[in-house]
Design brief:
This protein is of the alpha/beta class. It is built from 31 helices and 39 strands. The strands form 12 sheets. Strands 16-13-32-17-31-30-18-19-21-20-29 form an 11-stranded mixed β-sheet, sandwiched between helices. The protein has a 5-stranded mixed β-sheet with strand order 35-36-37-38-39, sandwiched between helices. Strands 6-7-9-8 form a 4-stranded mixed β-sheet. The protein is elongated.
């Protein structure tokens, strides 16, 4: 073997190691942990199997060539002329040999040439070199830092082309056939613990680079240690980073070869930390060697490598990598390997000889490339399986106000659980923090005693503060006389939104009336949204497409979706929605104001953005129509009723509804007393309580203080009677689209969501927001008596959304609560409610719960086991895929879950997970104790059939007693179908386990 061949072999090995990400051997998260588990087998595949396969394929070519020559020799030896010549040779008859050579010269020459070729037959070394070259070139062009990108090039011109099927206009982007899997949680923070020092280390991004002017930076960004460096609080060490492009000086400093290396930056980071952290500090433990590191790195080196790699890799999963690469392989062969244009000038014989050589090369190249593709596809399909798998619900909790417990379960039950409530310190503390109410005894929970009975305060109980028995006791009581599905106001889901939408498909298919989303805008500077370098727009579009396409299935035929965006992505969003919903279902392009803009610079090079765009699409335009397409002529009644142009002194007071009011300092009232009296008489002026929003108009007579909160602090406002309305158009610049009430960066205003929800839904309809943000959509939906679903994954789920919804249940006087039409349906007396919230297993959790079985050595002897079936076969009993044997104790099925960046073990909510998988409308629950064994009965409906589901532990179970207990508890419901976990003697029951496992992967592409 020549040196050039050896070099090409090593280059091919290097490329395959890059594709299989061998450089990440120290990474212990995600798909890397799985690949590292099989690193020896993959190394063997690269070093031996692929190279040996090339040799084998070339050997096969040699045999085929020999066989072809032998066939030709056999054919020519059948000729009489050659037969006579061979006989003369055998007898050594020199005279005849000489005579035949003269008479049969052409045939004998061909025969001897064939014999000579047979002796010398071998495949050219050039073919072997070409094959290695083509393998390297082919896989290099589609692979980009952890992902296979769908980009195609024409020959040496290297221009991308797009698959085209005759469309008039084609909307295409480079990641169209992939899933976007990155989550903002990965970027925000990274934490790890050092066991022997009992110290927690947090990596935090404190600054992400902003765009300069209107210029989009395409330069690569890096994680650089912030000037703040670190802080140590007790046993918690925070290390601070910036994520930005480098200065010219930094580029030179961190250059490694021709590229800038994050690894080199990491080494500098460690060096700075060693200099900055004092010698006697507890924090210096981070420089000790991590015993789990395969390469002998210190704790800080290993985790810094993990952190930067984790944020710069693993973005996409291809939906069908095998088909994509096989299609591209055929394209590559036709356009680059079969150089047919080079054959046109050759003579006929040369043409066929050259073509034969090309075809030989193609055959070997395709066979080898296909083997590599098979293995790559196995890994990619395994990741896709993990992504598409319906995720387990980790836990479920319920929030319900005291008045609703009384209404649905009865006052006797509420009194029975009062002692548990009053003795629950966590619940009492939450009420104190949220509402400033100090609860010590029963009377503190009561608003009033009336003839109709006790009026309980609308304080929300959260079952997370109580044990499981309390939750099941509550649900049993609530659903004893009520359909639980009907009395439930909404659902919150703590999850990455694709996974939550995927789980909702069976229970909420075509049941949502209105979707509103305000996704992260397509900005490069967002600190919580990391783009793959060079694919910023494609990444963003892919993220949206994956989720909106899934959400479309949740909309009913009369439903609609509102997607808010700004100038960074509105052109893409319009095209994307056209593709998903169809141009014919476009309804409106709405403009809405952002915030008030105060620009003080004298030289303005770019006008500040004043408007956002909201695109409205119907699920089916033939069935869709706006429900309430009206608005009041003047909705600008929030501003003070005063003249704003006078800045000296203070005007005289005026009388409003018998109350004397002075204008603010530096202002004076705009109208005379006579005009004020006339406006009050005409219903064009009201007083509004500054504290609770109560509206006092002409029908209320003189102002005598606020009848709602008792305060005497009104302000005058313009007012337009409700009958004075006009049809909405697409210009919504009369209202602001953002608010600052909850101190959330992109907090949508309640006024905007009120208009969205009221214009497209009725009371009782379901509203969905899967980029929930601060929770405005669910808050407004509740105030307007709609059902609601909210999905969010950030920490603000716990510290903003959940507290906000609890305040809405208690009574939130802010936002639209001040408006007259809202106060009629949502006020202190009519507030209250009942919702549940879930925490879902995430893709990263699924990866953490993958376990490999050691296979029988004989399995590797089966053809294609390694390349096609290894991952699927060896992980089939992992808990992530439902280990059926573990369901013998369904209340103790445990998964490892990443919480606050630490790995913890949680018991899965099997009951609720199966309800979603089944698509069950759960109407009632019943919890039964039998000699220490817990039974959970779920009663519901699916497609018009009554369903009963039974859960219990199988440990030491007497099946005959079990049968009697089950039949006794379900007979009143009269189910059409019965599902039970484990074994049972109940007639015609269906086992949960195989159905559960099948449904977890239902709908996967």
């Amino acid at each position: 073997m020549t040196n050039s061949q050896n070099d090409l072999i090593e280059k091919l090995k290097e490329k395959l190691r890059e594709i299989f990400q061998f450089e990440n051997e120290d990474l212990d998260f995600g798909i890397y942990r799985i690949i590292n588990y099989k690193r020896k087998e993959i190394e063997n595949f690269i070093n031996k199997e692929i190279i040996n396969e090339v040799k084998t394929q070339l050997s096969v070519l040699k045999e085929e060539e020999q066989q072809e020559i032998e066939e030709k020799i056999k054919e020519i030896t059948s000729k009489t002329t050659i037969k006579k010549y061979l006989e003369a040779l055998e007898k050594g008859d020199e005279e005849r040999i000489k005579l035949y050579r003269e008479d049969f010269a052409e045939d004998i020459s061909e025969y001897e040439n064939l014999k000579r070729k047979l002796k010398q037959a071998k495949v050219s070394e050039n073919i072997e070199r070409e094959i290695y070259n083509h393998l390297i070139n082919f896989f290099s062009r589609y692979y980009d830092k952890g992902d296979f990108i769908s980009k195609r090039r024409y020959g040496k011109k290297e221009k991308y082309i797009v698959p085209y099927n005759g469309e008039e206009i084609l909307f295409y982007w480079v990641n169209k056939d992939q899933y976007y899997i990155k989550t903002t949680e990965y970027f925000r923070k990274y934490s790890f613990q050092i066991p022997d020092g009992n110290i927690t280390v947090n990596f935090k991004v404190v600054k992400a680079e902003e765009e300069k002017g209107n210029v989009k930076s395409v330069e690569k960004k890096f994680f650089i240690l912030s000037p703040e460096v670190f802080s140590l609080n007790g046993k918690e060490l925070n290390i601070y980073f910036e994520y930005r492009t480098l200065s010219e000086k930094e580029k030179e400093k961190y250059k490694q070869g021709n590229t800038i290396s994050q690894e080199k930056i990491n080494k500098e980071t460690v060096k700075i930390l060693q200099e900055k952290i004092p010698e006697n500090s507890l924090a210096r433990i981070i420089f000790r060697k991590d015993p789990s590191s395969q390469t002998g790195k210190s704790y800080i080196e290993k985790h810094l490598y993990n952190y930067t790699k984790r944020n710069l890799t693993d973005y996409f999963i291809h939906k069908d990598l095998k088909t994509f690469l096989e299609r591209e392989l055929d394209f590559y062969i036709k356009n680059e390997l079969l150089q047919l244009e080079n054959l046109e000038i050759l003579e006929q014989k040369e043409y066929f000889d050259k073509l034969k050589l090309y075809l030989s090369e193609v055959k070997v190249f395709k066979n080898i490339a296909s083997k590599i593709i098979e293995f790559l596809a196995q890994i990619e399909n395994f990741q896709k399986k993990l992504w598409e798998k319906k995720k387990f619900i980790i836990d479920t909790h319920y929030v319900i106000t005291l008045d609703k417990i009384k209404e649905y379960a009865g006052e006797e039950f509420l009194n029975d659980i009062l002692s548990e409530i009053l003795n629950n310190e966590k619940q009492l503390k939450e009420w104190q923090e949220l509402f400033g109410i100090n609860i010590k005894e029963k009377k503190d929970l009561i608003d009033n005693n009336t003839l109709q009975g006790i009026e309980w305060k609308k304080l929300p109980i959260d079952t997370k503060h109580f044990n499981e028995n309390f939750k099941w006791k509550l649900l049993t009581a609530l659903s004893k006389k009520n359909n639980l599905h009907k009395i439930l106001d909404g659902v919150l889901i703590k999850s990455e939104n694709w996974q939550a939408l995927n789980l909702l498909l069976n229970t909420h298919y075509e049941k949502v009336k209105t979707i509103y989303i305000d996704p992260p805008f397509n900005k490069e500077q967002e600190a919580d949204y990391l783009y793959k370098v060079g694919y910023k727009d494609a990444t963003w579009i892919t993220m949206l497409e994956n989720r909106i396409r899934l959400a479309k299935d949740l909309l009913n035929e009369k439903g609609s979706i509102f997607v808010r965006c700004d100038y960074n992505g509105n052109a893409y969003v319009r095209l994307l929605l056209n593709e998903i919903f169809g141009k014919e279902n476009f309804r409106n392009e709405i403009s809405v104001r952002r915030f008030k803009k105060n620009v003080m610079e004298r030289e303005i090079k770019k006008l500040p953005e004043g408007l956002d765009t909201i695109y409205v699409y119907a699920k089916n335009s033939e069935h869709f129509s706006y429900v309430n397409p009206f608005r009041m002529k003047d909705e600008k009644r929030e501003g003070f009723w005063r003249h704003m142009g006078d800045s000296s002194g203070q005007g005289n007071p005026k009388i409003f509804f018998g109350r004397e009011l002075s204008p603010p300092p530096g202002k004076h009232w705009k109208y005379s007393q006579e005009k004020i009296d006339q406006m009050i008489k005409e219903g064009k002026l009201i007083l509004q309580c500054k504290h609770c929003g109560y509206i006092h108009n002409r029908s209320n007579g003189l102002w005598k203080g606020c009848p709602v909160c008792g305060k005497d602090d009104p302000q005058p406002k313009y007012w337009v009677e409700e009958k004075d309305t006009e049809v909405l158009d697409s210009n919504w610049s009369d209202i602001y689209g953002y608010s600052t009430k909850w101190k959330f960066q992109t907090e949508n205003s309640e006024t905007l969501l009120k208009r969205v929800i009221e214009s497209t839904s009725n009371e009782g309809d379901t509203i969905l927001d899967f980029f929930l943000g601060s929770g405005t959509t669910t808050a407004v939906a509740h105030k307007l008596k709609r059902k609601w679903i909210g999905i969010e994954m950030g920490d603000h789920f716990w510290n903003i959304i959940l507290p906000r919804m609890k305040k809405v249940l208690f009574y939130d006087p802010s936002g639209i609560s001040k408006e007259k039409d809202v106060k009629e349906k949502y006020n202190k007396k009519t507030a209250g409610g009942f919702f549940k919230y879930h925490t879902l297993e995430q893709y990263e959790d699924t990866l953490e719960n993958i376990e490999f079985e050691d296979p029988q050595p004989t399995l590797y002897e089966f053809p294609d086991y390694f390349a096609r079936y290894m991952f699927e076969w060896e992980t089939k009993k992992s808990k992530a895929f439902l280990n059926i044997s573990e369901l013998k104790d369904p209340f103790n099925y445990k998964l490892k879950v990443i919480e606050n960046y630490h790995l913890k073990t949680f018991s899965v909510d099997m009951v609720e997970t199966f309800n979603y998988l089944m698509g069950l409308t759960a109407k009632a629950y019943k919890a039964v104790e039998d000699n220490g064994r817990k039974y959970i009965f779920v009663f519901g409906e699916k497609e018009g059939r009554k369903i009963a589901i039974v859960w219990r532990s199988m440990k030491n179970l007497n099946l005959e007693k079990d049968r009697k207990l089950i039949e006794e508890n379900i007979k009143r419901y009269g189910p059409d179908e019965i599902y039970i976990n484990g074994d049972a003697l109940v007639k015609n029951f269906k086992a949960i386990e195989p159905i559960f496992k099948t449904l977890m992967f239902e709908g996967a592409e």
